[in-house]
Amino acid sequence: MQPTRSFASDNNAGVDPEVLEAIARANQGHVVGYGEDVYTRSAEALFRKHFGEAVEVFFVFNGTAANCLSLKAVTDSYHAVVCAEAAHIYVDECGAPEKFLGSKLVPVPTENGKLTVEAVRSRYHGIGVQHHVQPRVISITQATEVGTVYQPEEVASLSRFAHDHGMFLHVDGARIANAAASLGAGLREVTGDLGVDVLSFGATKNGALGAEAVVFFRPELAANFKFYRKQGMQLASKMRFLAAQFEALLGSDRWLRNAQHSNRMAQLLKQGVSKIPQVKIVYEVEANAVFAQVPRHRIRQLQDRYFFYVWNEAESVVRWMCSWNTTEQDVEEFLEFIRRNL
Known about the structure:
Elements: H1 17-26, H2 38-51, E1 56-60, H3 63-72, E2 79-84, H4 88-91, H5 96-101, E3 104-108, H6 117-121, E4 134-141, H7 152-164, E5 168-173, H8 176-183, E6 198-202, E7 212-216, H9 225-231, H10 240-250, H11 254-273, E8 280-281, E9 289-293, H12 299-305, E10 309-312, E11 317-321, H13 328-341
Parallel strand pairs: 2-3, 2-4, 4-5, 5-6
Antiparallel strand pairs: 1-7, 6-7, 8-9, 9-11, 10-11
Helix pairs in contact: 1-10, 2-10, 8-11, 11-13
């Protein structure tokens, strides 16, 4: 019998009880739809508290929409988005960004999931040449797809390069809370204060029920976003139920506690697997993910009980994710199963 909790994805975890309670509290009476309600206004105020008074914020249902719509706001069809070759927008969104934007994604190889100014500069060419797409956006993921975390100066350097070259810096923040927790910093400190222009803010992986947000740090960039959101089929008629989730997470330190916990569980898992000779950790564990190389012939046996994803089949690298509700007992039982079956 498989355990009720696995290490496949933080998307597989349930909903934070405080989020469910907030949804239930919002389920009272009638309010005006499409975001013209007190719950949405309250959630927007919380975003301004965490990210700065000048931000514009819009709620959507999922991360693919947050990424596609935020990039749409700052690109035209002849533009290019420079991203890491492992970026979610390049690998895991079924071509949705390119289909929705009409723009080209330009992937850059990385060693640890993080773009550098030097790497981006290598893709910055053909400027003003009508035969070439024009680089317009640098898109980074924080925390990265391989569980590493950009340090503040790394983000600031990319921002400076972007702005010096007439570009924008976009952050896919599906796990921005985990990154902030890892850095011991506030949400604004790891985004707007570093020169980020637009953020896809993830809540689903941190305990929400299908709620994400797009945050613009330069209000002028959001001028037409309400139309993009509607065309993108992401304007919720009962917006209060998305907004209530952000109230629960951002109205207290719940967003931070959940992220700190999942990060801590990943460290616990790292410490345990580091003592197993057959397992080699391949990336620094800086958020809530552990990437490990394991004997190829044992992967299926492990997956039969604890489902997880193979990250790099050629190199036999797997990904183990910890969630806001992963427990120490979950980790210890998983470690014991690995020890017995490797």
